[in-house]
Amino acid sequence: MLKLGIISGSPSEIDIGKRVSLSVLRFLSKRIRYSLLVLWGVVTLVFFLFNVLPGDPARLVMGQRADAASIENARRDMNLDKPLFTRYLLYLNDISPIGWHPKAEQEKYGFVQLIPAGERCLALKWPYLGRSYSSKREVTATLGEALPGTLILALTAMILATIGGIFLGIVAALKKNTWMDTASIAASVAGISMPSFFAGLIIAYVFGYLLHSFTGLNMTGSLWYYDAFTGRHLALQNLLLPAVALGIRPLAIITQLTRSAMLDVLSQDYIRTAYAKGLSTSQVVWRHALPNALNPVVTAVTGWLAELLAGSFFIEYIFGWKGIGKITVEALDKFDFPVVMGSVLLTASLFIIINLLTDLLYAKIDPRVRLS
After folding, report:
1. Is 1 inside any structural domain?
2. Is the pLDDT of residue 172 over 80?
3. Inside any domain, residue 81
4. Distance CA 104, CA 124 (A)
């Protein structure tokens, strides 16, 4: 009987596992197709936007004193002598992981040949974003150096906002209709209403300039500082002010979400049962109420992480923090279009990846959510 029970139960378990796997695969396939479509739209918009602006990129690369022959050679190397749509197709071929390239350009692109065909081949490579007009470096290397600074700043801001927002939301819910609740709501509304760049200017001026002798914090600075004699040194104190300025808005939203979710959970019957069993307030909050109130908070945290990666441009520029945002603003000032286009594409890719992971995480946390 035991053997029969195992045999009869196994197929149903296998069927359930197959259905779940197929559901996840269908969801991933659908989201990947959608993401690729969004990326293609971003690429198209960015390319045509920066290729119809006035100015000669060849003149920017060669300098104002270059002769006509040098300018013409630069235009030929940058494909500027070709029609706009042809340049668009060549740009798509460059940034695509799989492209059609001459074998002689293997050193330039660093590709792996997949299907050779005469002097050309179908190749597998990293996306090639071109070279900076001003520094002559590859855009990929420039962005690769700046990306860790942006990631560290966004993660730090999100950690501060999450911890502070959850704590303030819990306090506001437990102290409903008191001055603490009113103060937290007023502060969160002010935080939501205040633009990040305005908050950054105020924080930099007050804590980095007026109160510098007390705080020891600088108005500007990056993660590393360089000394002519001792070399590179870590400067974590420079991370605090930009992280706080960047995290104000998500902190305000997380505070309100936590408060609303906690008030809803605290009114449930099982919470009253937990109190009736003699559990303390801290046990009820941390063991029973908070875990069931975190679903909207998790969604907000992961969504805002993507927003912070894309929205740290002005914060980085205000505080002199070396990241994607600061490099992009400086590149715009110099009309360095390859760097700007590369940073936009990188930011869009990160945004799409984080949103995809958010959907998967939310479906994992909340069994009621179905991938479709």
Report:
1. no
2. yes
3. no
4. 15
